[in-house]
Amino acid sequence: MALGTLSFVVINFTSFCLAVPIQSVPNPRRTDGGWVTDMANMLDAGTKAELNRQISALEAKNSSEIAVVTVPDTAPAASPKAFATELFNTWRIGKKGKDNGVLFLVSRGDRRTEIITGRGLTVLLPDSQIRTILHQEVTPRFKQRQFNAGVLAGTRALITQLSQYSPSGSSSRVPRPLPGASPARKPLGVPPITTSKHDSQSHSVPPDTFSPNSSSAPIQDSLSEISPAQPTAIAPSLNPVEHLILAIIAGLGAGSASVGGLLLYWRSNRVLLDPEGESRIKRSDVTGWERFHCATCKQRMQELTAGELSLLLNQPQQTAQQLGSVVYSGWRCVPCSTSLYGRGFHLRGTVLNSQEYSVCLVCNELTATHQSKMVKQPTWNQPGKRLVTHKCYCCSNQWDTKESVPCLPLPQDAVTISPLGYSRVTNARLFQQSESKRPTHCSRCHYPMNQVSSDQIQSLLEAPKQVAQRLGSVLFLGWQCPTCYPTADPSDIHIRAYILSSIYQQCPNCQELTVEQTSRVVKQATHYAEGEQKITRHCHCCSFVDEYWEKIPRLYESSSYESSSTYESSSSSWSSGSSSSDFGGGSSDGSGGGDSW
Asked: What is the CA radius of gyration of the chain?
């Protein structure tokens, strides 16, 4: 009991430390008036400043809002997308009534990026375009661990699209056509729409009046210019003869369909029986609409009355019908009955209950009941046996049979592992939300395995694994199979590792997640030149150290920035031209896209 309680505390304490509730994510508009929250420490100061500058310039231009958020993990949410959607609607990104907000979320532990758009941007930023931005601009840089460059490139691509947004809301409904797209054309065969003869000006719609570079309204807007009070010309109506021809064609088509349906029904429900003999069918195969025909002459057969049938059934058949295991019906072919020399009819039996009754070896009919008794209980790897006693209600015959009972099935959510060895689970969410509560069984004997104490695990772990568990990057649990290895040898266990965080990297010497990466800006990026930062990777277990330099993209040029917002490099606060200290009250239905790196 104490062992199980200790394991439960360790598992839940680790999950609690990694969990990131929505309420714990700081709102950047309330904390420093900016647009960036970096809980996962993936962005440097220069990147945050540039993101704040570009997003503030966009917000001052057309009121669009972008929030950039990095988190260590999205647990206990169901998925990163669910976490991002809830965070979007909690902060209410975008302006109220316009819903022109975007959330750019990066989950380091899940190695996942999610972009959620407001309801007013579903046309301007469709899901397909969001996935294109992630695949082309963000994911390739993230795979090279260039998080600053990836976030900047993805945000710039979003700003490029959002620059087309109009504060009036029209751009969010009709996006700008892509370069090279064909102009909108009037459908063929539709006459131009004109006003009545009382109007001196015609409002015909030319076939090619809208082009991607034109500032005129689309065809739908041109149609809306026609006053509803003005009647419009319609196509000439059909004459009476044409109506009659169409009615005849429609009637013939409906009649053909009805005749075809009747023929199909007739053929599918016709059952051919031999004029003399027996047949048997299961109750589940009976539809109730069968029509019995003679297999020789194809004529309809007549059903015998209950009185006639009772005189023709033998004793076992009568007993089976009284027990309710089988019901019989008799069918006679009148044209063929004169040439028959046997019983002169076809006996058809419908099996009603074959589970409760068994076939008597003497009567050869379902007239025996059976009772079973377990002789040997089944186990996880050995089948059981049971003794079945049969007793016939017709001839009083009694006999016994032995049946094999299948092995106990494994639970549907069971985790099967080998009794010895080492395994590794790279998905932290799999452990936190499902595997920690699922039963663990041995893959060799199928018996449940017992979890060993943490002290026993620590004594078997090497130094790099102990350091990784102390850092919180990996959690090690041990499982012992009492059936395959009943002795108390501490080494006869299976060690299972769960990767809980991707903040730490694998050390080439220790072969464990013990390497921490830090960055230091050596040269600040400007509007005219790239910057440079020093990346240092050092192991917490051995003496491994790796240093390299990474380019910082130059700052994005924007003429509207100087007049809309300012950023003081010596202070940690961001001062925006926007008077609001929070997001504008937008909402999202979860539209957008995501990608893993």
From this structure: 39
Element (H, E) at 102: strand 101-107
Whether residue 126 has a cis bond before it, omega within 30° of 0: no
pLDDT at 235 over 80: no
> For residues 60 and 99, is the Cβ–Cβ distance under 8 A?
no
Q: Tokens 């000439």 belong to which residue? A: 236
The tokens describing 71, both together, are 């988190």
CB–CB of 431/425 below 8 Å?
A: yes
CA 488/CA 251 separation, integer angstroms: 86
Measured CA to CA, the distance from residue 475 to residue 494 in angstroms comes to: 14
User: Residue 165 has what pLDDT?
Assistant: 81
What are the distances in angstroms from CA 276 to CA 339, 346, 348, 505, 571?
Answer: 11, 5, 10, 82, 103
**Residue 433: strand pairing partners:** none
β-bridge mates for residue 416, sequence order: 441
Among the listed residues 182, 177, 133, 140, the one whose alpha carbon sits nearest the alpha carbon of residue 159: 133
With CA atoms as reference, report the closest residue to 502 among 535, 533, 468.
Answer: 468
Residue 472 CA to chain centroid, in angstroms?
30
pLDDT of 467 higher than 90: yes
Side chain identity at residue 373, one-letter code: K
Distance CA 51, CA 258 (A): 69
Q: In this model, does residue 122 exceed pLDDT 90?
A: no
What mean pLDDT do residues 128-153 have?
91
**pLDDT tens digits, 519-553:** 888 888 887 888 888 999 999 999 999 999 888 88
Residue 274: what are its φ and ψ, rounded to 5°? -65, 145
Distance CA 298, CA 152 (A): 81
**Distance of alpha carbon 37 from alpha carbon 69, whole angstroms:** 5
Q: Find all residues with CB under 8 Å of 145, minimum gap 6, and list them.
A: 517
Maximal C-alpha separation, the chain: 114
Compute the mean pLDDT over every residue in the chain, rounded to the nearest whole number.
Answer: 78
pLDDT tens digits along 285-324: 888 888 999 999 999 999 999 888 988 899 999 999 999 9
SS3 508: coil
Q: What's the token pair of residue 590?
A: 């979860």
The DSSP call for residue 345 is: S
Query: Strands (DSSP E) along 295-414, which ranges?
Result: 302-303, 326-332, 346-351, 357-359, 366-376, 384-392, 398-405
Q: Taking the CB of residue 149, how many other CB atoms lie within 10 A of it?
A: 20
Residue with tokens 């397909």: 128
Distance (Å, whole) CA 152 – CA 52: 11
- Is the pLDDT at 559 greater than 50, yes or no? no
Q: What backbone phi and psi angles, to 5 degrees, belong to 70? A: -120, 135
